[in-house]
Amino acid sequence: MNIREMKPSDWEQVSQIYLEGIATGFATFEQQIPSYEAWDNAHVEQCRLVAEVDGKIQGWAALSPVSSRCVYGGVGEVSVYVSAKSRGTGVGQLLMESLITASEAAGYWTIQSGIFPENEASINLHKKVGFRFIGKRERVGKIDGIWKDNLLFEKRSKTIGID
Hints:
single chain, 163 residues, alpha+beta, 7 strands, 35% strand
């Protein structure tokens, strides 16, 4: 498996994996795939990765800024999605470990994730790569008219932002 930077030409495969996540009902508040332009504008350019085997993308990970305020310039929000056929094979862990490295190289001192409580695989993945549970945001948003809680996890760099 090869972990590499995402290219715009990967969008077709990346968006299909994103659609699989949307279909679970517990991976994102999004209900449809955004255009590549909208997705591109929302994510940090140097922190976009794909896991690829024989030209087929198995999963992707990216960071988006948590705020436009300069004081939060080193805090990013994680997106990580693994194709349905590749779940449970270690793809997510490889992507997350690579994203952590890429985020530190880009100057991020904290990365965070909001995870639905029923997404146990994502919770376990984040714990496995060193994220810690911060708290629960109750009824923070709706999917299909139903209020959803969101669990906040974060990972603080041991090398960036420590001085």
